[in-house]
Amino acid sequence: MAKVLVVTSGKGGVGKTTSTAAMGAALAQAGQKVVVIDFDVGLRNLDLVMGAERRVVFDLINVVQGVAKLPQALIRDKRLENLCLLPASQTKDKEALTEDGVGRIIEELRGSFDWVLCDSPAGIERGAMLAMRFCDEAVIVTNPEVSSVRDSDRIIGMLDSKTVRAEKGERVEKHVLVARYDPARAARGEMITIDDILEILATPLLGIIPESQDVLRASNVGSPVTINSPASVAARAYADATRRLLGEKVPMMVPHERKGLINLLLGRRAA
Amino acid sequence: MNILRLFSSRSAEPVPAPPPTAPIARERLQILLAHERGSFRGSPDLLMQLREEILAAVSRHVTLDPDKVMVRMERGMHVSTLEVDIELPSGCDAAFTAAVRQPAPA
Predict the structure, then answer these.
(1) In a domain, B51, yes or no
(2) Residue B29 lies in a domain
(3) Which of A55-59, A165-169, B92-96 has the highest mean pLDDT?
(4) Integer distance in angstroms from the first to the last C-alpha of chain A?
(5) ∠ CA A78-A17-A98 to the nearest 5 degrees?
(6) pLDDT single digits (tens) B53-96
(7) Is A91 in Cβ contact with B70 (below 8 Å)?
(8) Taking the model in full, what pTM does it have?
(9) Left (φ > 0), alpha (ψ -120 to 50) or beta: where does A56 sit?
């Protein structure tokens, strides 16, 4: 049975799109059939992060309006054949996104994929509400920073009241993904701790993604970090988070760069 | 394996810097924005227009099944490609040949 998962946060710039791409690719690498949908109508970026920006023919709103059939709008990833992208529209009015239309698309995708990942826009407007509307599970991307945690709390409240599942009295399974975590600043006590975040949000932790140059490099070249540099700390953190989504018990690690003995002795940073 | 790696010469040498990715990012953005700006400033995307007209031309001769039409595009800096893959129902090419052989009366 397909799972519909929304990647959301309330606040912008916390890493929703990066995380959607990285987890979507990691799920596909684990053999799952995955589609990622960009709900940010007018400001799409998932296509760019996935490196498919030059191949967009049709988009989500074309499918909602019946201009294109769903299979025609799906862009198959060039690196992973069981990974597809449904891009957002860049030009049309976001009011064109209707609840009926989105519901029909998600229902159709449930039939042909194992995972439907909905990349939510920032904010709590129509796009964000429709991205979460039909979800079974939610990943709330949070940065260790006060405004991000506050917005996450707001979004958790909406997941528990404004989704189809919530209205039917069913549970939306929620996970917190802490992104842009800086172990050095945490060690100096300059950042809200993971424990503080989890206590405040009262939601289980899916993973901790470190602030990383590898993530920036991956988005520069248009490839999810889990494909572009799978051995990097960030990619391994995303891969672990993904295995937890698949139900595996993976010990939670606070990510750090791996250091060889000699590098450690010389006080050098490893690659 | 890990123990060997600890003492291998690689770990004692400076780690080579990864190739810079910023130029790739710049080129990708330039291509993307050139196409987006073109379509935002009122002149419709050429590829989209070609697609519409090709499909219209084909549908004058055969009934198109929207499920049997796949369109792929690749936008580039110097060259863009448009790939229209139309599955024609069997028998339609015979009908077309017959129509061409019997020119319509003048």
Answers:
(1) yes
(2) yes
(3) A165-169
(4) 40
(5) 95
(6) 888 898 888 888 777 888 888 888 888 888 888 888 777 666 66
(7) no
(8) 0.85
(9) beta
| Interface touch A72/B11, C-beta < 8 Å | no
**CA separation for the pair B72, B69 (Å, rounded):** 10
- pLDDT (tens digit, 9 = 90+) per residue, A218-239? 999 999 999 999 999 999 999 9
Q: What is the pLDDT of residues A135-165, one digit of tens each?
A: 999 999 999 999 999 999 999 999 999 999 9
Q: Do A61 and A141 contact (CB within 8 A), yes or no?
A: no
Asked if pLDDT for residue A203 goes beyond 90, the answer is: yes
Number of domains in chain B: 1
A133/A114 Cα distance (integer angstroms): 18
Report whether CATH 3.40.50.2000 matches the domain A3-266: no
Instruction: Indicate the helix (H) or strand (E) that contains A137.
Output: strand A137-142
B-chain residues near A49 (CB < 8 A)? none
The domain of B64 spans 21-101
What is the enclosing helix (H) or strand (E) of B32?
A: helix B22-40
Q: Which pair of structure tokens corresponds to residue A219?
A: 């988005």
Which residues does chain A have within 8 Å of residue B15's beta carbon, measured at their own beta carbons?
268-271
Helix (H/G/I), strand (E/B), else coil: A5: strand
Mutate to test the interface with B, among A43, A46, A49, A57 (most CBs of B within 10 A): A57
DSSP string, A152-185: HHHHHHHHTTSSHHHHTTPPPEEEEEEEEE-HHH
CB contact under 8 A, B28 and A53: yes
- Cross-chain Cβ contact A262/B25 below 8 Å: no
Measure in Å the smallest separation between the Cα of B100 and chain A Cα atoms.
32
A219 with B74: Cβ contact below 8 A = no
Residue B37 lies in a domain: yes
Residue that is written with structure tokens 């863009």 in the block? B80
